[in-house]
Amino acid sequence: MKKITHICCIGAGYVGGPTMSVIASQCPNIKVTVVDINQQRIDSWNDDNLDNLPIFEPGLKEIVGKARNMNLFFSTEVDKAIDEAQIIFISVNTPTKTYGKGKGQAADLKFVELCARNIAKVAKDDKIVVEKSTLPVRTASAIKSILQHTGNKVNFEILSNPEFLAEGTAIEDLLNADRVLIGGDDTPSGQEAKDTLSSIYEHWLPKERILQTNVWSSELSKLVANAFLAQRVSSINTISALCEKTDANIQEISRAIGYDSRIGSKFLNASVGFGGSCFQKDILNLVYIARSYGLTEVADYWEQVIIANDYQKSRFAEHIISSLYNTISGKKIVLYGWAFKKDTNDTRESPAIAVADALLDENAEIIVYDPKVTADRIYADLDYLGTRSSEENRKLLTVCNDPMDATKEAHAIAILTEWDEFKNYDWKSIHEQMLKPAFVFDGRRLLDKEKMDSLGFNYYKIGQS
Ligand code: UDX
Ligand code: UDX
């Protein structure tokens, strides 16, 4: 088996950054270099002040603080890092295509392809190339073809090693992974490459948790895992709508069904909808793949998970509008939370974006407070929708750094992210300074209904009548 002394990762994002930081911290004898074409991002990773890292993840700054410039390096010198590494991870983003064939569904692989071409150009000796980005099935064979046809007669082994970390718990998920999946060819050199990558993870994980499969099973497993998780959220969310019409309580239902060990208790929290960079994109990919093979029923089945999620978001926004007497024009509505879940500053596909957009369509005056998301990010998310001009977005929506100030003379508050701090606010004082009747729409089921009712709020908790 190859002795590994140098690892390189292309893409210093939410996946590449934390994953490589953990590998470096667990493998002190391996030099790990994370490269990115974005100079500003690399500068933030190298910032002396660890609070300025580009990504917020609990536990990340401590690990980076210890390993950085020891055996963990962040750089824009992509070619140099490729050249010295025996294992190269590709961890660049694969957004949903916004043009051409597969627009709105298929993954845009142009960045992955650019990486492959770059590796082919630079490599002078044999390399193991690992796809870490979530990719449609059969991408590995495309990467392989590019590497084999433009390379310098070096042997490339392509492995699929999908990421299962969830943001907000990335470090814990990496250190204590349920499983690591490694897909590769069944040839002798493919097997050797799988064993080599496995040996990296064996520095801290028991071997039984490292599963080896063929490449396509590995690629498809990632999409399927996310599709199943998202399906649970959509399933419980559709039932939350039914609960609101009846006297059933969604929490009691989640508990009752979760006790069935065949169902299990996780991922049964009703919410304003799922977000994040993966769920929607991966399901769209699955749908696209199924359709491209003529499997219409399969595609329709999974697409419904997304349709239910869109329904949940618009249902929440419509409930706010109808509760505020069907007119919210000029009314001050505070959004607590913009991130797609707590403990991350990531906002990709956050349900907050869709809810804000629907409320802005009705000319509401929106104030956003999120403990970790910057104003620039919030405006960029809205501008990206293209629903209205960026001037209008800035006119109608303001970002506030003080959660108490934000609520002065507000008509309503909508809780869109489950940040712990929201639970501990002085809700009595908040009620006093809001206009009456004071509404709270809890899209994360975060607060205690009895308490909120007793303080005098008109309190709505998703999934409860
Ligand atoms: C990850 C996975 O890789 C992706 O497949 C998954 O679906 C979402 O999560 P993530 O790390 O979250 O992506 O993406 P992002 O934070 O956008 O980071 C990607 C980085 O790659 C960016 O910093 C970008 O500058 C960099 N990049 C992109 C390159 O260095 N080279 C390129 O050619 C393209
Ligand atoms: C997900 C997968 O969990 C992870 O394995 C994969 O590698 C990447 O995609 P992530 O998107 O970071 O991780 O977060 P996750 O914790 O899965 O939450 C996704 C969304 O579902 C969030 O918006 C969250 O708030 C929502 N959710 C989750 C619910 O609404 N209810 C739940 O019970 C669980």
Estimated structural class? alpha/beta
Number of helices: 18
Order of neighbouring strands in the sheet with most strands: 3-2-1-4-5-6
Question: Which regions contain 5 or more consecutive residues with pLDDT less than 50?
Answer: none
Average pLDDT score: 95
- How would you sum up the major sheet? 6 strands, parallel
User: Which hetero ligands occur in this complex?
Assistant: uridine-5'-diphosphate-xylopyranose
Overall form = globular
Work out the number of β strands: 14
Overview of the structural elements:
The structure is a single chain. The protein is of the alpha/beta class and 465 residues long. The chain has helices at 16-26, 39-45, 60-67, 78-84, 110-122, 139-150, 170-175, 188-201, 215-245, 250-258, 279-292, 296-323, 351-361, 375-385, 390-396, 403-406, 427-433, 449-454; strands spanning 6-10, 31-35, 72-75, 87-90, 127-131, 156-160, 180-183, 210-213, 332-336, 365-369, 397-399, 412-415, 439-442, 458-461. The strands form 3 sheets. It has a 6-stranded parallel β-sheet, sandwiched between helices. α18 (449-454) links the parallel β13 (439-442) and β14 (458-461). α1 packs across α3 (60-67), α5 (110-122) runs parallel beside α6 (139-150) and α9 (215-245) packs across α11. The protein is globular, with a radius of gyration of 24 Å. The structure holds uridine-5'-diphosphate-xylopyranose (2 copies).
